[in-house]
C-alpha cells in the first residue's frame, strides 16, 4: 500500500491536512496500451554487432510478447492494446497518420489477450530483417520531420487515451507504456514549430493523466549514448529533481523484469473482504483484509462442449418424487416433533447454526513471547483500517496499533462464522521504508491459532530399561552447526524459486495454445547447486561431520557394506534363476506353443520360462506369451 507511515501514524495533535488519510480503493482490473516506436532508428542493431540481427524494435516486441504470454495465464481478465507509431500505414479509429493499432479478427482494439493475438504478434519478433512482413504491411518512417505539422507521438497518445476511455479509474488501473530509443523526438525541428509541438504533446499527456491514466517510458538505450530523459520525456511524465537521475536505472529494471519474468500466477493486491472489528462494547471499527503470499496452483478444470468448445454450465433441478414434476419453489426443511413436522426457513436454520456474526471480536491481550512459531498453522491475513463506512476507524486502529507495539503485546480475538469459528492472534507490524519507498506497510497480521488437539507433543524414544537413550556428543553438535552455517542460503526467500511442475504445466498450455512445436525450456531452480556444494569449505565441513558421527573408517565400512549387499543380491538372483529353470523344465513349451495352450498357464508359470531364459517379465499376460512365442521362433 502506497501510504506514508510517518503521516499515517503521526500524533493526532498535528493538524496538517496533507497527512489526512485518503480512502484507498484497489483497482480490480488493468488496461494497458503498449506504444511501440517504429521509426527507422529502432531498427538499428543492438550493440552494432553484425553477427546478430537483434534490433531495438525486436527487443521491444520480444519483451511485450513474453509479457502477454504471462498475462494470459496470470491476469487473463486484464485488457491490452498494441499500437505502433511512426509508421507509413495507419489503422486507428481517429484515422490519424503514423499510428497503427495491431489487432486480429474477432477482437476489439482494447480487449483481453488471446492466443491468436500472441501468435501473430510473435511472428513480428521472428522477422529479423527490414524486408519482413512488418515493413511491407505497416512500414517505418520518421513521423516528426521539419516542414511538416505531423506529430506522430501526439497522435499515438491521443489514440491510446481514446482506447482507455472505458472503465472508471476507481475500479480499473490504466497505463500507457512507451517503448523507444529516441530521447529527443523533436530534435530535428527548431523554432516556434518545435515549441508548439512540445507544448501540445505534453498537454495531451497531462490530459491523459487527469483521466487517471499513467504514462511510463521504457527506454532502449543505445551503447555509449545513455537515454537522456531530460531532453523531453521528463516533462511528458512529470519527473522533477532527483526523479530525473533515478529514472533510467528504475526503467531498465522494469524492462528486464518484463523480459525475464516467470510464467506464474500474479496475485494482485486487492481486498479480500471488509469486516467489522469490535474493540469493546459499543465501539466497532471497519478493517480491510488482504491475502498475503499463497502457494500457486494450476487453474481449475473447465468443462467444454465437444462440438462448440464453449464452456459448459452445470444446472441442478429438483423433481417431486410423487408427481415427477419439476420443483420450482425452494425446498422446505422440517423436524418431526410430537407427531408434527415443524417447518424451518433457510434464514431460521442459518440463525440457529450461527455461532458468530463473522466479525472480529477483541478478547484481550497477551505478551508477544507467549506466541510460538508452531501456533501459525496457515498463511496469515493482513488487516488495515478503512474509514469508508465508519468514520474514525483509522484513528482507533492507530491507537490500538501503537499501544501493542509499545507494550509488546498481541491481541487475542474471536473470528469466523458458523462454518469455521476460531481464535486468532493480532500481531502489530510497524511500517518499514527505504530509499526506494515503502518496504512493509503498517498494520496487523491476523494469525489463525490452533485448537488444543492440533498440537501434538513430541514422542519420546522408547527404549528398554537397561539401554540408554542415544545422545549426540558436543563435538557432533559442533560439527553439525558448522556444516549448517556453511550450507546456509543468504537472504533466502521462497519467492526466489519457481515451482518447476507449475512452470511445465504453463509451458504445455502455452505450446498447445500457440501451436508451438517445441516446449519452452523450463529451468528447475529447486535442484541442488552442485557447484556450490563442491566448494572446499562445504566439502571439508561435511567430511568432518561424517568423521564425528561415523568414525574415521566410515568410507571403508560403506564400501564393505555395498559389497556385502551386492553379494547377497547376486546370491538371491542366482537362486531365483535356478528355481525358474527347474520349474520351466516341467512343461513342453514347444508343444504348448504349437497347440495354442500357453494361455492356459498361469502368469507365474510364464514368468518362470522368461526368467530361465533371461527375458524381461514385465507386462500383462498377452505380452508374456508374445515374448515366449518370439523366443521359440513361432
Morphology: extended
Q: Strand order, biggest sheet?
A: 6-7-13-18-15-14-12
The percent range for helix content is: 25-40%
- E-strand count: 18
Jot down its keywords:
634 residues; alpha+beta; 7-stranded mixed barrel; 18 helices; 18 strands; 36% helix; disordered N terminus; EC 3.6.4.12; ATP-binding; ATP-dependent DNA helicase 2 subunit 1 protein; helicase
Summarize the structure in short.
By secondary structure, the protein is α+β, with helices and mostly antiparallel strands. It has helices at residues 5-8, 56-74, 115-126, 133-137, 152-163, 191-210, 233-237, 242-260, 346-353, 393-407, 474-487, 500-514, 530-533, 536-550, 554-584, 589-594, 603-612, 621-632; strands spanning 29-37, 79-85, 99-102, 172-180, 213-219, 271-280, 283-291, 318-319, 326-327, 333-336, 341-344, 360-367, 381-385, 409-415, 422-429, 432-434, 437-440, 443-448.
Task: Summarize the structure in words.
The longest helix is centred in the C-terminal third of the chain and has 31 residues. The chain is of the alpha+beta class. It has 18 helices and 18 strands. This is ATP-dependent DNA helicase 2 subunit 1 protein. It comes from Dioscorea alata.
Any chance you could write out the topology, listing elements then pairs?
Blueprint: H1 5-8, E1 29-37, H2 56-74, E2 79-85, E3 99-102, H3 115-126, H4 133-137, H5 152-163, E4 172-180, H6 191-210, E5 213-219, H7 233-237, H8 242-260, E6 271-280, E7 283-291, E8 318-319, E9 326-327, E10 333-336, E11 341-344, H9 346-353, E12 360-367, E13 381-385, H10 393-407, E14 409-415, E15 422-429, E16 432-434, E17 437-440, E18 443-448, H11 474-487, H12 500-514, H13 530-533, H14 536-550, H15 554-584, H16 589-594, H17 603-612, H18 621-632
Parallel strand pairs: 1-2, 1-4, 4-5, 6-12
Antiparallel strand pairs: 2-3, 6-7, 7-13, 8-9, 10-11, 12-14, 13-18, 14-15, 15-18, 16-17
Helix pairs in contact: 2-3, 2-8, 5-6, 11-14, 15-17, 17-18
Enzyme class: hydrolase
Protein name: ATP-dependent DNA helicase 2 subunit 1 protein
Organism: Dioscorea alata (Purple yam)
Amino acid at each position: 500500500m502506497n501510504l506514508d507511515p510517518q503521516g499515517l501514524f503521526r500524533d493526532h495533535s498535528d493538524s496538517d491536512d496533507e497527512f489526512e488519510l485518503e480512502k484507498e480503493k484497489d483497482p480490480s482490473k488493468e488496461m494497458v496500451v503498449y506504444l511501440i516506436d517504429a521509426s527507422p532508428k529502432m531498427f538499428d542493431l543492438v550493440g552494432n554487432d553484425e553477427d546478430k540481427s537483434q534490433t531495438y524494435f525486436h527487443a521491444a516486441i520480444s519483451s511485450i510478447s513474453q509479457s502477454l504470454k504471462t498475462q494470459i495465464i496470470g491476469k487473463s481478465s486484464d485488457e491490452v492494446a498494441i499500437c505502433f507509431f511512426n509508421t507509413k500505414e495507419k489503422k486507428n479509429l481517429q484515422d490519424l497518420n503514423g499510428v497503427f493499432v495491431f489487432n486480429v479478427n474477432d477482437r476489439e482494439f482494447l480487449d483481453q489477450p488471446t492466443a491468436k493475438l500472441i501468435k501473430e504478434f510473435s511472428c513480428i519478433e521472428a522477422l529479423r530483417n527490414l524486408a519482413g512482413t512488418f515493413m511491407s504491411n505497416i512500414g517505418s518512417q520518421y513521423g516528426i520531420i521539419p516542414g511538416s505539422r505531423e506529430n506522430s507521438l501526439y497522435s499515438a497518445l491521443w489514440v491510446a487515451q481514446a482506447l482507455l476511455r472505458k472503465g472508471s479509474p476507481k475500479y480499473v488501473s490504466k497505463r500507457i507504456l512507451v517503448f523507444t530509443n529516441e530521447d529527443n523526438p523533436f530534435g530535428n525541428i527548431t523554432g516556434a514549430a518545435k515549441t508548439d509541438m512540445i507544448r501540445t504533446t505534453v498537454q495531451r499527456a497531462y490530459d491523459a493523466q487527469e483521466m487517471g491514466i499513467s504514462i511510463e517510458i521504457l527506454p532502449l538505450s543505445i551503447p555509449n549514448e545513455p537515454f537522456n530523459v531530460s531532453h523531453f520525456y521528463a516533462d511528458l511524465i512529470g519527473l522533477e529533481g532527483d526523479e530525473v537521475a533515478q529514472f533510467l536505472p528504475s526503467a531498465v529494471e522494469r524492462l528486464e523484469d518484463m523480459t525475464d519474468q516467470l510464467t506464474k500466477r500474479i496475485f494482485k493486491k486487492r481486498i479480500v473482504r471488509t469486516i467489522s472489528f469490535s474493540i469493546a462494547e459499543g465501539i466497532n471499527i471497519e478493517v480491510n483484509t488482504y491475502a498475503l503470499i499463497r502457494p500457486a496452483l494450476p487453474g481449475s478444470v473447465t468443462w467444454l462442449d465437444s462440438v462448440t468448445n464453449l464452456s459448459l454450465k452445470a444446472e441442478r433441478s429438483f423433481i417431486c418424487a410423487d408427481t415427477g414434476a419439476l420443483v420450482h419453489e425452494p425446498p422446505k426443511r422440517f423436524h418431526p416433533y410430537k407427531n408434527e413436522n415443524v417447518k424451518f426457513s433457510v434464514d431460521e436454520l442459518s440463525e440457529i447454526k450461527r455461532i458468530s456474526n463473522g466479525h472480529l471480536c477483541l478478547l484481550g491481550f497477551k505478551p508477544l513471547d507467549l506466541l510460538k512459531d508452531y501456533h501459525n498453522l496457515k498463511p496469515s491475513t493482513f488487516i488495515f483500517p478503512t474509514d469508508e463506512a465508519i468514520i474514525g476507524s483509522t484513528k482507533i486502529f492507530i491507537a490500538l496499533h501503537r499501544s501493542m507495539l509499545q507494550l509488546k503485546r498481541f491481541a487475542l480475538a474471536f473470528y469466523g462464522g458458523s462454518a469455521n469459528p476460531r481464535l486468532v492472534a493480532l500481531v502489530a507490524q510497524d511500517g518499514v521504508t527505504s530509499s526506494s519507498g515503502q518496504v512493509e506497510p503498517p498494520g496487523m497480521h491476523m494469525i489463525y491459532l490452533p485448537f488444543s488437539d492440533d498440537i501434538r507433543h513430541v514422542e519420546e524414544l522408547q527404549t528398554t530399561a537397561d539401554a540408554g537413550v542415544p545422545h549426540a556428543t558436543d563435538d557432533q553438535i559442533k560439527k553439525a552447526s558448522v556444516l549448517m552455517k556453511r550450507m546456509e542460503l543468504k537472504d533466502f526467500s521462497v519467492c526466489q524459486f519457481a515451482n518447476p511442475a507449475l512452470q511445465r504445466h504453463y509451458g504445455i498450455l502455452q505450446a498447445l495454445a500457440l501451436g508451438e512445436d517445441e516446449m519452452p525450456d523450463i529451468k528447475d531452480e529447486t535442484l541442488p547447486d552442485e557447484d556450490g556444494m563442491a566448494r572446499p569449505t562445504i566439502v571439508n565441513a561435511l567430511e568432518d561431520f561424517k568423521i564425528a558421527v561415523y568414525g574415521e573408517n566410515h568410507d571403508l565400512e560403506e564400501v564393505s557394506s555395498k559389497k556385502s549387499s551386492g553379494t547377497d543380491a547376486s546370491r538371491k538372483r542366482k537362486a531365483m534363476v535356478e528355481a525358474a529353470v527347474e520349474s520351466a523344465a516341467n512343461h513342453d513349451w514347444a508343444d504348448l506353443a504349437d497347440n495354442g495352450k500357453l494361455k492356459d498357464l498361469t502368469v507365474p508359470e510364464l514368468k518362470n520360462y522368461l526368467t530361465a531364459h533371461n527375458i524381461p517379465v514385465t507386462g500383462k499376460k498377452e505380452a508374456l506369451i508374445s515374448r515366449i512365442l518370439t523366443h521359440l521362433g513361432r
